[in-house]
Amino acid sequence: MTRKINYSMISLLQFLFAVLVIAFHSARIFPSEEWNYIQKNIISRLAVPFFIIASAFFVRWKTSINKDFEKKYIKKYIKSYLLWSLIYLPYAFMYFRSLGLPKTYLPVGIFAAIFYIGMCYHLWYLPAFLFGSWLVKQCSKQMQLLSVTLFAFLLFLIGSIETYAGYLSGTSIADAYDTYAQVLFTTRNGLFYTPIFICIGYLLYDYRNHRFVTERQGIKLIGSFLILCGEAWFIFKKPGVDKNFLIGLIPMSFFLFNWSMRTEWFKQKDGRRLKQLSVMYFFIHPAFIELLLLTPLDEVLTTYQYAWVSLIIVLLGTHLSAVGLLKIQTKRMFFIEKWQSIAFQKNRL
């Protein structure tokens, strides 16, 4: 089945979700509360689960072929994370200063940024994915994958307290969450959030030929989307701390990825460039968002004029930077391969 995977559709969705992440982090573009909610808290919320499932699926697949793949992948992942953490270190320092905390807390802040919340608001995803992967791996040594998935789902339910806080106000559960949040800020982390989607990626590979995932994919996808919309409306009426933990994201992201890798749409296209751009978009875009905040652009435009103009500028700047970095990366790989080829020929002589 792996030969029939529609990599191009997966790459296209990753690219579109990367754009949605940029729009999510940018200024509000819709004056309507309903449309803003749909954009920010339904469609855009699918991005991170989809990214996690895609990564987990391919790690599972490649590791089944080469047992050393996962270790190499994790090492490369950590190097990439540390590089981007270094790039966003100035932003982290400015954010720390804005909190008005004593400088003696700086080492604690750096530690928390690297291992938990990220040097910038989008980098939380990387340590969360790493910890979630480690947790699932450790649990898998003691339990079958389906049992680990159930455990991960229970963790997700606990994490959803912050999303359902509006309905839990005044209860002991809400009080317990408030105590937790005073120390660890959020349940959107590698313990409560990422494990369930990592398990989904593994399940979709392990059970890739099961009737449940091969039949009636479209109906299941539409049904799961309706469930997500219904839950989102329920939260919209009485919002909690945030909207990260929509339980409907679990079936929706499951069936969306399953559909994307099986559909014939876009299958004949080459999606590798979109995949590369989506990664660069994710890492680069906050730099342009934060730089725009230093300009007087918001003073000469209305609120929603600024939102759309700034979004276009951020998208354009991010795209041009991504293209430039990918060209540099390609040339670097070319020279490395050429040098290795020359060195190999010299050794033969």
TrEMBL record:
The keyword Amino-acid biosynthesis does not apply. GO terms for molecular function: acyltransferase activity, transferring groups other than amino-acyl groups. It holds the Pfam family Acyl_transf_3. Keywords: Membrane, Transmembrane, Transmembrane helix. Residues 11-299 form the Acyltransferase domain. The keyword Nucleotidyltransferase does not apply. It comes from the Bacteria. The chain crosses the membrane at residues 42-61, 81-98, 110-136, 148-170, 190-207, 219-236, 242-259, 279-297, 303-326. InterPro entries: Acyl_transf_3_dom. This is Acyltransferase 3 domain-containing protein. It comes from Enterococcus alcedinis.
